[in-house]
Amino acid sequence: MAPAPPPASASLPASARPDADLGPGTLVIEDGVIPRRLRRPLDLVRFGFALAAFAGVVLLAYFATSTTTGIDADLTSASRNLPNIIQLLLNLAAILGVVGLPIAAAIDLLVRRRGRQLLDALVALVLAAGIVLAANALLHLYDNRQLILALAGSVAPDSTPLSAPLAAIVAFVTVARLISRSRWNVLTVLVVGSLGVVALFRADITTAGIALSILLGWAVGLIVRYSLGTPTTRPRGIEVAEAMERGGFGVSVLRAQETTEVGRRYIATTRSGEALTVVVLDRDLEGAGLVRSAWRAIRLADDPGTGVFNMRRALDHHALMSYATEVADAPIPRLLLASEVGPDSAVLVHERVQGKRFDELGDTLTDDDLVGAWRAMATLHRRRVAHRALTADHLLRGVDGRVWLLGTASGSIAASDVAERIDIAELLCTLALLTDPGRALRTGQQVLGVTTLARALPALQPVALSPSTRRAVRRNKGLLLALRDGLQEIRPDAAVEQIKLERIRPRTILTILAGLIAAFVLVSQLAQVDLVAVFRSAQWEWAVVAAIASLITYVGATLSLSGFVPERISLLRTMLAQVAGDFATLVAPPTLGAVAINVRFLTKAGLHPALAGASVGVSQVAAFGVHLCLLVGFGIAAGTQTDLSFDPPRWVVIGILVLAALALAATPLPPVRRQLAQRVAPLLREVGPRMITIAQRPLKLVEGFGGIVLLNLAYIAVLVASVKAFGGDLPVATVAVVYLAGATIGQAAPTPGGVGAVEGVMAGALTVAGVDAGIALSAVLLYRVVTFWVPTVPGWFAFNWLQKHDYL
């Protein structure tokens, strides 16, 4: 049979040659699916590991200096006890290796016509040496004696914490890929080891310094190799065709279709005219998807991903899924051949089904097509096989009208109940996006029945869907709500199950990171202050004043809430709710914890949830307004001289005027108006009617705004008393500005209770205002103990008491 010619529309470079293994007339058409150079994901993974190891060694050397110094002394003593002949040979190997290894490797690379790789290796060598020299200079410039001693064993000006020759050789070896070649790996290890031992002979560097030099050289080599790329080892299409020939599939035409995340995809035509789909898995893409896989594993309780790409594991999983679906008699193209193509690639050959994918059908998609998709998925589920990627491009209508499933490589056998629910939910979303929610629900109910289809309800969460479906759902904001409502309508008597698919939220990770940073900042501040001496000299009668002022804050908080609730509520229980709010701030940012407690309390007190939310919203808006007014007022007072004249710097006045003018000029612009309408209008709609109701009762307004003022003044009194307790002396207006600024930062910080952020801002502000750093930090710590940490204990009891009596 004559080879089929390529279509006229294809302008592809073609290579065709008769081959003894292929038989005459095999045509291979490739279009850039095999780049000359590529970036290997595994190099980036290794680079991250090298950086983590580097940081770990630095921390170990810095905080365990005595231990590492003892180990270095033992190793140096042992190395000097080696026979003289061995010491001579090691010195000789180190000297010759530094010069001879790069030269010999360069000759080898040139003989193998790898000039570009040699150039990259030389770039890595020079870059590593430069980074080490710069690092040594910076260490001596900043004179971190403890770290220099840990790395160099001496704090002399000419000491070398890191070894430039060692890092340069390792970087060169990494880019030249000498370790992976059997003729060079022993020599490379010998040279690098000799350099390290000789450095220990002379006591020029410690073991930590040697380890860091090697890790730094490795990291530089890896990032250079990843940035500049490495020569590809992927087999050409002709070799793929040869592998298919050996497997019994003589190829007439092999045409490149696309490059994927894990390799390549070809379309093949056999000599008998059979159409095949050929997937090639390339080993040089191993490590792809590590970040995505790690993120999903951390975030999701049931991870639908297949993990980091590994060629052998992917080959085995792909074949296993194909055989499992074939046993299930599912409409999935059969796997005809799985074979290696040399050591760096593997080929998977499937029968090719002619037809159109669902995303190509548009308005021609019929209810029969939707029913076919549901039946195909149900066939898999009967054999406990989950597809895990039921997107529009994985659904195909064949020329005979039958619906086929593609993309089973991401599926799983022995599927869990959650995995099957996610499949149903994803197919429901996919079909609803292609048509409408009503058709998707109706056809699903026709095939699966009401009970089975309703299992998707708890899995209708964006986090459960594949990335492409999730993006499409976010563009159609009402889709998930329409599907949920539709499922509840067809089975209103069913209890709504809850499935927690999200193991950890992004906000939680942000909170943890912020907490770690805050802890680091706080610990570094504590390390610079002799707190024992400061606390011994404290005037503890002021601490009692601070505690009394802290109790007054609960009166203010109670009035600030009850004043914006026209309905009658118990003041005692309202105060207990404010105490319970202090416990809630341990597990949530301060504003979120207090708002949630207050809304829940008012709802339990008999208010409609909408009215409860509106009352708390009015209270928050009023608190923000009062807080801003107090900040401006005390700021002016703090900057006013004794003659009551306020003379701010001219540049401040000009800057404020310019900003005000820009804000006024931007207000008429349509984008700004839209943003204001989107953000301000909903708030006004929510709190406006409630504010009008409260405004008709002046005493309530006095109660609410008076409570907010009392709350802020009491907190200011706590901070003033805390400063005076340690001998600090600042004007009340200045301390008030410090509190108001710190409270603002604390409300915005994502950490529970603003931990770390509040302490850092307040201590820094007090120091700038003229208070000694030790006194400032001690005063802030006392303030936080009185207003945040101690109240959590009665807050826990109040929280439990209110819950026990159904008040919360």
Quick description:
With 808 residues, this protein is of the alpha+beta class. It is built from 31 helices and 14 strands.
Q: What kind of oligomer do you see?
A: single chain
Range of helix content: 55-70%
Strand order in space, largest sheet: 1-2-5-6-7-9-8
Percent range for β-strand residues: 5-15%
Shape: flat
Radius of gyration: 35 Å
Uncertain stretches: 1-20, 641-649
User: Helices and strands: which structural class?
Assistant: alpha+beta
Mean pLDDT: 78
The overall strand count is 14
Distance between the termini: 81 Å
The total of helices stands at 31
Largest sheet, strands/sense/barrel:
7 strands, mixed
Question: How do the strands and helices of this protein lay out in sequence?
Answer:
Layout: E1 14-16, E2 27-29, E3 37-38, H1 41-63, H2 65-80, H3 84-111, H4 115-142, H5 145-152, H6 164-176, H7 182-201, H8 207-228, E4 230-231, H9 237-246, E5 251-259, E6 263-270, E7 275-282, H10 290-299, H11 311-327, E8 335-340, E9 345-351, E10 355-357, H12 358-361, H13 367-382, E11 385-386, E12 395-398, E13 403-405, E14 412-413, H14 417-434, H15 437-448, H16 450-454, H17 467-475, H18 479-490, H19 506-527, H20 531-536, H21 540-562, H22 571-584, H23 590-604, H24 609-639, H25 650-666, H26 670-695, H27 698-725, H28 732-748, H29 757-768, H30 773-789, H31 792-804
Parallel strand pairs: 2-5
Antiparallel strand pairs: 1-2, 3-4, 5-6, 6-7, 7-9, 8-9, 10-12, 11-14, 12-13
